[in-house]
Amino acid sequence: MRDIHICEVGPRDGLQNAHHMMPTEAKKRWISALAAAGLEEIEVGSFVPPKLIPAMADTGEIVAHARTLPGLRVVALAPNLKGFERAVQAGAHKITFPVSASRAHSLANVRMTPEQMVQEVRKCRDLRGVEGPQIEGAVSTAFGCTMQGEVPEDDVLRIAAALAECCDCVALADTVGYANPAQVRRIFARVRKEIGAKLEGAHFHNTRGLGLANALAAYEEGVRAFDSSMGGLGGCPFAPGASGNVVTEDLVFMFESMGLATGIDFDRLLAAREALVNGLPEEPVYGHTPQAGLPKGFKRAA
Ligand SMILES: [Zn+2]
Q: By Cβ atoms counted within 10 A, which residue in 56, 138, 168, 215 is the most buried?
């Protein structure tokens, strides 16, 4: 029984923003080690045009490998209909669409307005057969945007509500690491009121060191599904020197030490961290718990 569901997004969010390329075979070893540590869900890649993001060119092969790992839910990101079709063909169990609440970010990233992007998701939902993959709508830049600055909460609410109508679940993402805990509580509460149980996931970056604080704030608003990346991989293109996503190792430690089961074994998680470092030796990795070790007498949540 897991109290908390963690989706490891390092192979996608981390590697996509990393300065170095991880070879395909190393990716497979890393993902296998993550699954062996107890990660039940891994976002393994993104079906974007390979010319745009070369680090994601092998996503089809990576999805095929991840599908051989028992019990693992394989997640892939798709920015549009074409990406969705490739993800379905590859056999992803869950496909995530990032939909920016910021108009400026949406236009720059996918050359569509947020409303057009919702239409695109709706088209994909209509194409999906009965046996098709789960579709998640992730509201990105939900807490602020590097281009637009403030993102009105009403815009976040509107996009989340539109996505709830055509997706199996909705997540809120602090794409650029602007969120603070008070804001997280307020926006999650407002969106929860609007779309209820369809609101599932939280995706935070640790750009300004508030990743764990924001995760805890979301937990207190009833969120039980979190994205994180091993070693806080990936950095932030807008903040040189900053870490990427919330660090998986620290997130696991926080919840386990609070008595909340994640289903993840810490020693095996460190073995997966080794697989990451071996596959990408020049890339900086972060994390307090891996550096300090577990406290004396630490017990995993039952
Ligand atoms: Zn992200």
A: 215
Of 299, 248, 274, the residue nearest 9 (C-alpha): 248
Domain 5-292 has CATH 3.20.20.70: yes
Distance 297 CA to ligand 1 centre (A): 34
Q: How many residues in total does the chain contain? A: 302
DSSP string, 171-240: EEE-TTS---HHHHHHHHHHHHHHHGGGEEEEE-B-TTS-HHHHHHHHHHTT--EEEEBGGGTT--TTST
Cα distances (Å, whole numbers) of residue 116 to 6, 78, 86, 99: 30, 15, 20, 10
Residue with tokens 């008070």: 182
**Domain boundaries in the chain?**
5-292
Query: How many CB atoms lie under 10 A from the CB of residue 31?
Result: 26
Distance of CA 296 from the midpoint of ligand 1 (Å)? 33
> Where do runs of H (alpha helix) occur along the chain?
15-17, 24-36, 59-66, 81-90, 103-110, 114-127, 153-166, 181-195, 211-220, 248-257, 266-279, 288-292
Confirm whether 145 is a catalytic residue.
no
Write the pLDDT tens digit of every residue in 132-160.
999 999 999 999 999 999 999 999 999 99
77-124: pLDDT as tens digits: 999 999 999 999 999 999 999 999 999 999 998 899 999 999 999 999
For 224-234, what is each residue's pLDDT tens digit? 999 999 999 98
247 C-alpha to ligand 1 centroid (Å): 12
pTM above 0.90, yes or no: yes
Distance 97 CA to ligand 1 centre (A): 12
270 CA distance to ligand 1 middle (Å): 22
